[in-house]
Amino acid sequence: MTNAQFVLTDLNAATLCSDAAPYGMIKNAAIVVENGHIVWTGPQNEMADSFGHWEQRSLGGRLVTPGLIDCHTHIVHGGNRAVEFEMRLNGASYEEVARAGGGIISTVTATRAASQETLLQDALPRVDTLIAEGLTTIEIKSGYGLDLETELNMLRAARQIAQKRPFRVITSFLGAHATPPEFSGREDAYIDEVCIPALRAAHAEGLVDAVDGFCEGIAFQPDQIARVFDVAQELRLPVKLHAEQLSNLGGAKLAARYGALSADHIEYLDEDGVRALAVAGTTAVILPGAFYTLRETQAPPIDALRAHGVPMALATDINPGSSPLNSLLLAMNMGCTLFRITPEEALRGVTVNAARALGLKDCGTIATGQRADLAVWDIRHPAELSYRIGFNPLHSRIFGGTS
Ligand code: DI6
Ligand code: FE
């Protein structure tokens, strides 16, 4: 439904705007929308009379939150790794799986073999599942091409999603995700000859909103990531980093040095790293789907992040290997149960702090001047979003003022 001016009435709004009331909750609220943006919100009985002449849409006492934001996904990729999953559960070792063509390189092979159209068509059902959960913004990474043409194709497919669906897409260039077989043992050459030229080409085509990397023993060392980040800086692109997922290489400190938007995974982050994130104003993105799939036992340092006031975001990390988790609501539940974050932290993690992790200032809360990206829920209390497992109480979604 499109109408340039309307008022949502009879609702409770979890605005996430302030810490004063839990969830920034406004009971018996109204939200006034004009030209795709929120122009007023507050208690309905305080609404100016002039808005009373606009179209009124009663939400029957439902709960409204900002549209949800998945700030870390690899949702565009070729093929899947279900057979590998099955092989491992039938007792195959990691080496056997790798010899049979499994692992991240099997996704690289499948992604290279796919056309841009196939990448798009394969991603759309996954995207639709997220939209049905009230998401209005998604971040999508490259990183399964690892050659110039395929990295660009992934980003083009990601951008196309925003043309096919009412969904905002933010892209991250993740050329420094893994070393492709043709550069095996020559990581530096891969960074210089493929990753950096691909970043420049993708940027020139307007395909890059941020630059990401995977700083890990099995991926790239801090000095290699730094070379990519130097180019990001030159291109005036913000950076973010997969840091401290499996070990501590000082990735968070590196990210902080570059004023990163976010440091993601961070199971092995130590207190020094937390401090560095706090000083830099970098958001910590926690990804319980990968923790769960890899049967990791070390949880991110939630207490230290809280103590140092580091904002926490929460995302799916949707990818065909370590996190085939296609539900942000389930990620919220997992964040609470596996990492002991609170339901309020989970909701802030997929709204206001997810926006922060993407450098977005016009979404993630319900406030005057924000985009009218809203999710309307058939629930009474916002904790219900994190509490149930495998249940989707979405009533309706408003994207840029359109439902
Ligand atoms: N972190 C991960 O867990 C993966 N990539 C990353 O940056 C795994 C990707 C895959 O297995 O396909
Ligand atoms: Fe990831």
Key features of this structure:
403 residues; eight-stranded parallel β-sheet; alpha/beta; six-stranded mixed β-sheet; 14 strands; single chain; binds fe (iii) ion
Structural commentary:
- This protein is an alpha/beta fold and 403 residues long.
- It has 15 helices and 14 strands.
- The strands form 2 sheets. An 8-stranded parallel beta sheet has the order 5-6-7-8-9-10-11-12.
- Strand 6 (135-141), helix 5 and strand 7 (168-176) form a beta-alpha-beta unit.
- Helix 5 (148-164) runs parallel beside helix 6 (187-204).
- Bound molecules: 3-[(4S)-2,5-dioxoimidazolidin-4-yl]propanoic acid and fe (iii) ion (FE).
Q: What ranges have pLDDT less than 50 throughout 5 or more consecutive residues?
A: none
Helix content percent band: 25-40%
Q: Please report which band the strand proportion falls in: under 5%, 5-15%, 15-25%, 25-35%, 35-45% or over 45%.
A: 15-25%
How many beta strands in the DSSP annotation?
14
Largest sheet: 8 strands, parallel
List the helices and strands and how they pair.
Layout (H helix, E strand, L loop, with lengths): L4 E10 L10 E10 L2 E7 L11 E12 L1 E3 L11 H8 L4 H6 L4 H10 L2 H16 L3 E7 L6 H17 L3 E9 L10 H18 L5 E6 L6 H13 L5 E4 L7 H7 L4 E4 L5 H10 L2 E4 L1 H6 L8 H6 L4 E3 L13 H12 L3 H7 L2 H6 L16 E4 L6 H4 L6 E5 L5
Parallel strand pairs: 1-4, 5-6, 6-7, 7-8, 8-9, 9-10, 10-11, 11-12
Antiparallel strand pairs: 1-2, 2-3, 4-13, 13-14
Helix pairs in contact: 4-5, 5-6, 6-7, 8-9, 12-13
The protein binds 3-[(4S)-2,5-dioxoimidazolidin-4-yl]propanoic acid (DI6) and fe (iii) ion.
Fe (iii) ion (FE) binds next to loops.
